[in-house]
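Final report, results section. Input specification for complex C-07:
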Amino acid sequence: MKIELKGITKRFPGVIANKDVNLTVNDGEVHALLGENGAGKSTLMNVLYGLYEPTEGEILVDDKPVTFKSPGDAIAAAIGMVHQHFMLVPVFTVTENVMLGVEPTQNLGLLDTSQARAHLVELSEKFGLNVNPDATVEDLPVGVQQRVEILKALYRRADCLILDEPTAVLTPDEIDDLIEVVETLKESGVSIIFISHKLKEVMTIADRITVLRRGEVVGSTTPEETNEQQLAEMMVGRSVQLTVDKEPATPGDTVLEVSGLEVLDDRMQRSVRGVGFEVRSGEILAIAGVQGNGQTELIEGITGMRAVEAGTVRLNGKDVTGSSPKHLFGLGMAHVPEDRQEDGLVSSFPIKDNLILNTYENSPFSKGLVMNREAINSSAEKLVEEFDVRTPSIDVKASALSGGNQQKVIVAREFSHANKLLIASQPTRGLDVGSIQYIHGQIVAKRNEGTAVVIVSSELDEILALGDRIAVMYDGSIIGVLDRSEATREKCGLLMAGLSVDDSATSDSATAESETSESQPASSTDAGRRER
Amino acid sequence: MKTDAPPEEQQRIEPPSRKSRPLLVDALIIPLLALFSALVVGGLVMIFADSEVARAWASFGRNPGNAISMSWDLVSSAYGALFDGAFGNPTAISETLLSSTPLILAGLSVALAFRAGLFNIGAEGQMIAGMLAASWVGFTLDLPAVIHLPLTLLAGFAGGAFWGSIAGFLKARTGAHEVITTIMLNFIALNFLTFFLKTPIYQRPGRSDPLSKEVAETARLPSFGDYRVNWGIVLALVMAFVIWYLIFRTTIGFRFRAVGANPKAAAYAGMGVAGTYIMAMAFAGGLSGLAGTANLVGVVYSMSPGFLGYGFDAIALALLGRTHPLGVVLAALLFGALRAGALQMQGVAGVGTDIIVVIQALIIMFVAAPALVREIYRIRARSAIETDAITKSWAS
Amino acid sequence: MALGFAAAWWFGFGSESGLDSTFGLNGRGSEIELAPLTLPSRETSLLLAAICVFLGAIQLTRGFGKKANLILGLVVGCFIFAFLIWAARDDSLNLLGMLQSTLLRSVPITLGALAGLLCERSGVINIAIEGMMLTAAFTGAIVGSAAGSTTVGLLLAVGAGALLGALLAVLSIRYRVDQIVGGTVINILALGLTSFLSAQILARYQNLNSPGRFRVIEIPLLSDIPIIGPLLFANNLFIYLMFILVIGINVALFRSRWGLRVRAVGEHPKAADTVGINVLRVRYRNVILGGMTAGLAGAYFTLGSVGRFDENMTGGRGFIALAAMIFGRWNPIGAFGAALVFGFADSLQNKLAILQVPIASEFLLMAPYIATILVVAGVVGRARPPAADGQLYIKE
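Structure output:
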């Protein structure tokens, strides 16, 4: 089917998310929608899928104008969407999830699960999407869950599939699988719109590329006519510095020493298996890896937010395994958590209170039980200025700030003390370029002051920009540690996919050897390994 | 599916509202309108329940004026008597203050717990626990008043604190939702009370019904002159100030508020969430214990089986007062006035005292749903984000 | 396992050997007479205790699996039986009567639990079951009397429940009131209204408080089966409805299209929304259905059991129903099982007084409440509520 978006404008109070966007997707075409966070890609697709109504403009399907008042309408027009955050009910089976909303029934409204199941199996074979129809979704790995989402759309006879950041949560192996699926779909005549901010993939997969920036179309091209540098410039609007200026590190003594760490996740699975590493003062250890390989639990274990099953954590030689966050903070550890709104800030508190969230019991902010308002206020004023937090006052609630400024508040809070150790998880997720550059600068400054820094990020660019040493996590273990000088995108990518660096460079032979060559002795190679 | 919520990345700071109404006006308008609405609906209930007025309405077609005037007479005499009974003369005011005392304390209890993110429905049980401890101190020990009274009050606080901390402990250790545990603890405390009242320790000698011994003279709260009101009201107001200071000016209060607003972030910042829950419930329980004790050593001097009846009111007060101690005090005075005037209303207008409960429930409802009040009276919202949603699920 | 050892200690060794417990097995008017079942007290208790220990050991070694509920049921059953044997040593106890009483007392709890279930499965916490039951009980009494027909009374009682359900739904869905606050409001409102109207109207017009009760309907043939017959097939409408609802809701929830959608809304409303399910409509519908079921539960009090309305006659059973729902893991059959346990505890109090068991009656009264706390604290295994339980759903 052919889809045309003509002159789409979408306004929200105070914000224009899409401005006069024109987009054409031809029959059987794979069209990539490229842009950085906040460019308006998701909004545009939500308009197409009927979740939003456009303020202006029209949508044409096969040259006929249509209006979608809900996803139901879009689905009826054979448009399907796979969201970035899956819309699957965790406790239901695959079949139940796929048939939800279009359930076949016997008499009396009783479900005819077997009919749905049969159809599902048929589709899954036709498009090469392997799933176990009776598996419970929450037990499935993310890549398989995504397949379920795609099958959901195909079950409803989608002729055009919108994929929103599909590779964000996949391992490189799974990404390859996805590319194959996309090819199969394309051959069957299904059009695909592919939202991404990853230049490499877009260049690999797309037939056409449209770049959005700040809600407007900046350009439309094909992979043959362009290259990554050009695309990056279109996305960001100026020549982009893809690296951070930084002098080489001068590491000192070991500050953080982790060995043999084992941590369980929420479902009692071992998600950190015997992890060990060292970080010295004045250096940045960047932990890379696709989300979901145990990084979150690792950091939670080190920072005292999750129980540690085995292993030790030493801070400046002292055993601090399982210590409370408060204790660790007292010993000089700073932590910028992954989810700034949930874990880093109290949204309903004003900025000044958020800034003392972990220091409120110390002087000068309080004496005994009584809190010292002047001290709190003056310190807040200072920090807000020092860390460039854009806000009319220190009394504004944290919830009113933009993502970038919220992160700056957290950074101000954590960075404003002399720390021995700084741990930052996904420090620039969802931020605009200006904030990203600012925070990167702050992190490097800390490192230059002699702090030991650990960064966890799923953005390889960030890893390569900041890391002095790079450790890659895969399936709960550190599968390789590289010095920055020897780290390349390719090597990191291989490690992230679970392949040891010692393997030969080609991916085919690497795939065959992946079962046998593991750099971590602790990890098991049975089939249960992939379960997460 | 329409929306007005922009995606996260593109949210800006709210521009200042064009027509800015002072915050105080806003904070008062809705509660006042809520009160008004509640009185109106309460009046309707009264009309419906009165057989004579109902008959007048049945013949509305023939004599509309009669129905309306009878209704008006009923409602106005009821509310008039209510007001008179509450404020009409010094005795009435004394009664109002007297009734308000335990309400202030219980309301503070619930408000404090709310601040820490906890729903304390267990005020009744905590009051009983406090009373059990206090009355024992009251009738067993023989000390000069200067020591006996404070000791009794302290015992009351301790008893309630103990009972409250059970629920806090359960929540901290097992995640058990405090709504259910506190309600259950209420009933358990109730049964303990009946049990204890039959034991020789507590039971008044010479009586076979469950009635406790009287508290010694030295443990009673002195009254003001001939009026029934006693120093309990002073105690309550002092505690209101103390709690205000605790919540807004101390590190403990900061911790309560942080944990209440976002336990995860609080944990990340190093605050012990479990300990906070226990402490908050202990404090809240203690306040309720004081409420029961104030009633014990100020009015009745002995215990009899049954709930005191302030527990659910306390929830209403905490909500009405927007969990702020000053608001709680004002709301408690209002409810105390309602209680004090109820008897007069029953005597003069023949309207049963339970209507007060209905009015109170309506007040809470309207206050808890400001959107509803706004819809009725067509007031524009101050900003798009105004409601405080503290919804939680059982497993949190 | 702990139960097993406790049983062995207490009951086994507590009774001297040589004593017998006699259980009467006949009910009123049964066709087939059975000789009373006589068992040696001590030996049987020990045997049952051994079974408990054995089952507990299995549980420990094999871990809690799908069979956990079944094993739990067996353990509880054995424990209870051992307890009865101990209590009845050297004496006789009408077992059938006990079972009947248990079943009857579990009716309002089961129905209440089903009501809670219907709401929570779609993601709305309903703690107003108590208030809904009370209002329905009152409505049933007054309407049944006025109309002279229990059926009409029942219909309007269910309607009253539906109305309150609608109120809860509107408050929590439309006006975004916290669901617990909204439920509390309704409870207070119900208590106040029913007490007020009861005092105003029912006290004056006694003829409005005698609605009569539903007669017992004996199913021919089936009701003659020994033991089971009189127990299951000679009851009034309410019990039959209860059985139908337990099974019906179970089938509907887990095997029908309606049920799948409801559960989706309760677990992941956003997912349901994106496949075109109207989340808010599902919630409204379910809460109203829940209200109706609670109305049925309430009607049981006046029209199925007592035959008149007394102030606050529900006595906290609405909250026990919530506990039963949690105990039963949000599952109709489980809730019924849990309700039986609670009903048993409720009926214990009477019977044991007759048997002169040396435990103060207050402690027995406390038993259901303590049991609830144990359940909620997760002592009896982890329970997973619907994932989106209690969360606001804001449409985008």
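Residues 1-20, 382-396 of chain B have pLDDT under 50 and may be disordered. The longest helix of chain B spans residues 145-174. This concludes the modelling results for the funded period.
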